[in-house]
Each structure stands twice: as structure tokens, then as C-alpha cells.
Amino acid sequence: MVEALLLGNAAVAKRLLTFVTIFASLQQVVAQNTQNTTDPCICQAETGDELSLPLWASLPIIGFLVMLSGLFSGLTLGLMGLDVIGLQIVQKGDDKELARCAERIAPIREHGNQLLCTLLLGNVAVNSALSILTADIASGLVGFLVSTALIVVFGEILPQAACSRYALQVGARTVPIVRFLMMLFFIITKPMSIILDWMLGREVGTIHSRTELMEMLKLQISLGAVDAEEGKIAQQVAEGALSFRDKQVGDIMTPLEDAYFLSSDTKLGYDSIREIFETGYSRIPIYGRDKHEYRGLLYTKDLMLADPEDEMKVGDFIQIFSRKVETFFEETKLVQCLNAFKKGGTHMGLVRKAITTIDVNPRFEIVGVLTLEDIVEEIIQEEIVDETDVYVDVDRRLKIGGRDTTNFNLGVFNPIWRSRGDKLSLEEVNAISAHLMRTAFTAGSNCSLKYETITWLVGEADVQNLSRSAPVGLNPCDTDWIYRRGQLANRCTLVLQGRLGAIVGHESFRTENGAFSLLARDAMFEKPFKPDFCAFLSTPKVRVLSIKKDLFRRAQELDKDPSLLEQAKKTQVLAPSRKRWTYGGREAFEDQSGSPREPMSPTLSSRRPSQRSLWGERTAL
Predict the structure, then answer these.
(1) Which of 134, 184, 511, 612 sits in a 20 to 30 Å window from 264, CA-based?
(2) For residues 379 and 236, is the Cβ–Cβ distance under 8 A?
(3) What's the pLDDT tens digit per position in 26-84?
């Protein structure tokens, strides 16, 4: 508004200047005509006494004054039309030449009122002198017409048209002249500028409202400042950035009924970890009795330290990390939430609401969840979808196209026995055989075997999935015991999944035996074996490989005769009741019904005897 008022004053002053010049010319014409009609003698006498310049000197001076008039007129429109804020924008723009021009003009443009007074004063003085000289050369109506034509055409129209189009370039090149004029007229213009500053206030540039900024952005995009795609994104971001400051948490939060929570009693087993992964969330709030009782925050990345076989409660697991969460209210501004998230404590906040009814004690209830992603989406005015998201918009339950048909290979999150039962894959056979060759059947020991023999032995051994009857943490039941101290045992046990607990020594020292732990290896030898320890199922599910003494003896016989070993492996493959696969050839064979088998991943299936037949009759403690 101040700039518009200043420009208005400049325009009014220029118009007044033109009218004053024309009026002075007319007054001279009238005065000369009056003198010529009343007393020609006196007029001739006075004319002869005046000091006038010769024609050869007047014409160059008139030309110079016309140039100065044009300069003052053009600079008044050009420099005063440059906004202070606009100059700052141009200085930081991409056009280096215009940036240098704006940088040169900015110091003198900051003194707006003094610059205006200087240019108007010079323009008035030059136009007045021009009128006087032209009146001396061509008196009467001719002088009036000549001076008016010179001022309007060469002092107003042409310079203003040029300076309005090339204000920065012309203004930058005339900065030394303007500085000299400001110093020349300092005594007169400085007091005038101080009075204007006091009356109108100091010039601060044009400040646009939010609506005006958006309209300016749209106009620049429509004029081709950027391409259409970039312009669309810029417009979205600008609208979001300008509008999100007035928005509150309640406008964009995820309601409580749509948020994903976990109970603190949830056990971090295979099923729950898989469920957490499939939801696609990176942070999950944990509640106690209900969703209004917040207990803590679970980061999905923390689950890399969780053992699914432990089935630890998530309420206990989150105590290890003590993750924090922000707390907001529905009326909180998004700017405050963004500042809180920027501190790096957490990027999730719970939205609470105070309940202050008369019948109940004052309390807070959770009504929703807010994340940093929600605020960013509000700024860019578009939903952000990453590779693990299931919904585009949780509130409207809009799913991502194609995610329903995506087949994630999540088999690693399940215990192997849940997918294969009592079968071993080729990879499992090779891994188990390599392990047993290094630990149990090493070369030079009394039970050494070749690698091919060990693979046959592992394929023939029993794979058993066992379930613990007693709850974890309590004493084992009778059916949970695998070995008893002092009782005969005719097989050794290799733990594949889960853990077996053991009670060792006279002090009854307890140990845990996890995957690839081998128990009772000496049970495969000729002499009877009585373990000096007790072993029991320690986890809810345990998968073991059991090698009987008779099977080990058969393996020792085959190890001495390669032909018998090869024949045994062929018999193992072709036995229809067992549905075995070859180890090396990976061929498919027909089953008992004659139906062809697909050549999928070769697996070894084995008989699955009952728990009682596997371990024999068990006695109570």
C-alpha cells in the first residue's frame, strides 16, 4: 500500500509538472500578445533590452534539457516502480545479469522518498527551463506547441516506455548519475523525505496476503515459469504449506478405531511377528487393559532382537528399549507438532482428550494417532505410499492396488515344522549332515562315517515335532521328559528347532540346548547307555532328529561297502510308502497310485511315529 501511494504521488507530481509547464507557456503567449496589441513600441524596446542566447547556443541547450527531462521522467517511473522486496528476490534469482543490476540499484532504492523528491525536483527544473528557452526562440503559439511536443514525446512517452520495459538495466547504468543528483539536491530533498517518512511511514515493500501469493504462483505457472508437472507439484506444496499452519491435530489424525495397537500380553511368537510385518507399520503403540491405557511403543526394527521361540510378551520386550511417544491434543496446531517431531525424540504422537464429566473423575482418553508422515502428507497435499503400506488412506480404507495379490515369501517367519511337518528339505539334510560330520562322526573317532553315509542316515532318521504339555516356566509334565538320569536310552537326539532343557550333575545344574545341539551321542554305541543327566522340552514347540542305535549300526555296515550304500539310497528313493526323493539327481518319481510327481524342491519325508513310540514308555519323576 505504501508503494502504491508513493507511485501515486510520483504520477500526480508528473501530471502537475506537465500542466504547470503548459500553463507557463500559455501565460507567456498571452502576455506577449497583450504587449504586442497595446503598445508595440514599448514591446520592441523591452525586447531589445533583454539578454537572450543566440540561436546556435539555444538549440544544443534545448536538446540537452530534453535528454535530462527524459532521463528524470524515465527514472521516476523505472526506479520507483521497482519494489524493494522484488529487488531482493531478483538478487537471489537465477539470472546473474539481472541479479547484478538489482544489487546496484538496491542501495539507492532503499531511500525511496529522497529518490522520489530528487527525480521530481530535477524534472520540474528541467521542464521549466525548457519552456523558457523555447518561448524565447519561437514566441507565441508556436513556442507553446513546440515545447509541449518536446516534453510530451521526448520527455515523457519515449523514456517512460523504455524504462518501464528495461527498468533494471537502465537503472543500474544510471546509478552514478542518480547518486550525484541526490548529493546535489541533498539540502532540499532530505528534509522533504523526512517529512514524507513521518507522514506516510517508511517504505517496506509490497506484502502479499496468502490468497494473493497463491494467485501470483498460479499466474507464474500459467505464464510458463516452470513446466506443467513441476508447477502442479509446486502449487500443491505451496497451498499445503500456507494452509497447514492453521490446521489442528484433530483434522488429520488417524482415529483410534483405525489405528493398529497391540496388547501388552501379546506373545512375540512366529504368528504375531508375521502379523506385525504384514501390517506394514514401523511403530506400534502397546496398551494395557484397553487402548486408553498406553504402555509403550514398539519399533518394528527392534524385533530383530526378539527370538520367536521365546514367545516373550511384548509388554516385557518394550521395556528393553523404553521408546518414547509424543502427546498432543486435538486443538494443538500442526506447527507445534512438527517442531516437536523435529527434535528427534520420536515421529509418532498419541492424541488425547480430557474427560471432565461430573459423574467420573477427570481423565484422559486416547482418541487417535498422529505421525510425522501425516504432517508431510498435509503439506504436499498427497498421500505417501511406501513399499510396505497396505492402505493409501486408512480412514477411507482405500487399499493399494496390487498389494492384495502380492505374494510375500514369509516362510522364514514360521517354524519349519509348520510348513513341512516331518519332512526335511535337501538343504536341511546337507546342513545337518555337515554339522554331524564335524561334531559326531568325525574322522578318526570310534563312530566316524563318510559324508554320503551320513546323508543317508539323516534321511532315514526320525523327525519329530513335539509339544510341551506344561506351561513354560513351570515344572515339566511326565510327557515333557526326553531323557531320565539312570534310565536306558537307545538313541541320540539332535535339536533342529526350539530348545531342550537339561539338568546336569549332582548339583542339578540347569542348561538350555538350542538348535544343532546333540544329546546322548553315546547311545548309538554297542554297550547300553544310561544318561547322567535329564532332558525335557523347554519351549512350547520343539523339533528334533532322533537317530536310533540300530539305524546307526546299519549306517556303519553301508559305510564299509559303497555298492550297498548306493543300493540303499536307491531303495530309499523308490520306496513308495515313504515317498522319498533322491539327494543328488533331484528326480521326480511316481507314487503308489502311479500319479506323476512335480519336480519341485527335493525334500526328504520320513515316518512320523507317535511321541510315545519314539521315546518309549516314560515314567514319572
Answers:
(1) 511
(2) no
(3) 444 444 444 444 444 444 434 444 445 677 777 788 788 888 888 888 888 888 888 88
Residues of the chain with CATH 2.60.120.10: 416-615
Laid out side by side, the sheet with 491-497 consists of: 462-467, 541-548, 491-497, 518-519
The per-residue pLDDT for range 348-370, each reduced to its tens digit, is 999 998 877 766 677 788 999 99
Q: Is the pTM of this model over 0.90?
A: no
- Distance separating alpha carbons of residues 231 and 521, to the nearest angstrom: 74
What's the fold here for domain 416-615?
Answer: Jelly Rolls (2.60.120)
CATH number for the domain formed by residue range(s) 249-383:
3.10.580.10
d(CA 132, CA 143): 9
DSSP-derived 3-state class of residue 263: strand
Q: Which of 446, 426, 424, 448 is nearest to 436 (CA)?
A: 448
Start-end of CATH 3.10.580.10 domains in the chain? 249-383
Amino acid at 30: V
Residues 6+ apart with CB under 8 A from 479: 469, 611, 618
Residues 511, 542: Cα–Cα separation, whole Å: 16
The residue among 496, 481, 470, 513 whose CA lies nearest residue 415 is: 496
Contact at 8 Å (CB) between 311 and 269? yes
Answer for the pair 317, 298: CB distance below 8 angstroms, yes or no: yes
